[in-house]
Amino acid sequence: MRVLAMDTSTEAMSIALIEENDVKMELNTYTKIKHSKQLLPLIQAACRAINWSISSVEAIAVTRGPGSYTGLRIGVTTAKVLAKELRVPLYSVGSLEALAVNVKEDGPVFPFLNARRQTVFLAGYQKGEVWQTLLPVGHYTLEDWLDTIDEAFPTGSLYFVSPDASLFEAAIQEKWGERAKILAKEDSHLAAHRLLEAPFREEDADIFVPEYAKLAEAEEKWQASHPDQVAAHHGSYVERAD
C-alpha cells in the first residue's frame, strides 16, 4: 500500500511517501515560511522525485494534534481533501504519540510540545505491542506537569522527548537530575515516516477535526471577558455574529 504521511503540528513540517512499510521519500522543512505555502508543493516535489502520481496514493496519514493551531488546521484540511478526492482511507496519529516513537529505551516516555507561557502539551506512555497511557494528553503548566510526573513516578528513569526540550531542560534537570533522560535535539523532531510506528485510527474525512487540547488564544480571551455567557452555556459558548 502506498501511503502519504504528513505532520504540520509544529514549526517544522514533514511529509513522507511510504510503500509496504518502506520509506521511499521523506522531506522535512525547518523554515519560518507558512505551512500553507509549502505543504502542497512539498507533496508534489516528493511525488515527482520518485515518479509517483498523487493518484497512486492508497491512504493518507496525518497528525491530529495537539500542536500549532494553524499548522494542524492546514495539515488536517489538506489530508481530508486528498482522502476525499482520491477516495482513500484517512488515518490520524496523535502528535505526542508520533514523537514518543523516537525513544527506543524501555521506561515511561513523556513527549511534549511548547504551548507558550510556560505551558506544554504533554502525555506519558509506556510503549509496547499495546501502548499504555500513563498520563493523558493535556495542556499543563510547568509546575503542574513536573509535580504530576514526580508524584506518579517517584523512582526510575524518565524519558523526555521534544523539539522544544531546551526551553524546559533546566527545570527538568533540577527536578530529577540523572533520572531524567532527555533525547538529543537531532532525534526529537516529528518525522512523518514515524506516523505508522505509532498507534493510529481511521477517520471519517467528513467530520474529522484536529485535537487541540486547549482553546485558541482568541477564544480564551473572549471567554475571560464574557464569564456570564460562558457559565450559562456550560463553558463552551462562543457568540456568532452573522
CATH superfamily of the largest domain: ATPase, nucleotide binding domain
- Please tell me how large the radius of gyration is: 19 Å
Helix content: 25-40%
Query: How much is the average pLDDT?
Result: 90
CATH topology name of the largest domain, in short, is Nucleotidyltransferase, domain 5
Protein name: tRNA (Adenosine(37)-N6)-threonylcarbamoyltransferase complex dimerization subunit type 1 TsaB
Domain Gcp-like: 33-175
Keywords: Transferase
GO molecular function: transferase activity
Descriptors for this entry?
242 residues; tRNA (Adenosine(37)-N6)-threonylcarbamoyltransferase complex dimerization subunit type 1 TsaB; Nucleotidyltransferase, domain 5; ATPase_NBD; globular; 2 domains; T6A_TsaB; transferase; alpha/beta; six-stranded mixed β-sheet; Gcp-like_dom; 30% helix
Q: If you had to describe this structure to a student in words, what would you say it looks like?
A:
One of its GO terms (biological process) is tRNA threonylcarbamoyladenosine modification. Pfam families: TsaD. It is built from seven helices and eleven strands. With 242 residues, the chain is α/β, with parallel strands linked by helices. The chain has two domains: 122 residues, ATPase, nucleotide binding domain (Nucleotidyltransferase, domain 5, 2-Layer Sandwich), CATH 3.30.420.40; 85 residues, Nucleotidyltransferase, domain 5 (2-Layer Sandwich), CATH 3.30.420.40. Strand 4, helix 2 and strand 5 form a beta-alpha-beta unit. Helix 1 packs across helix 2.
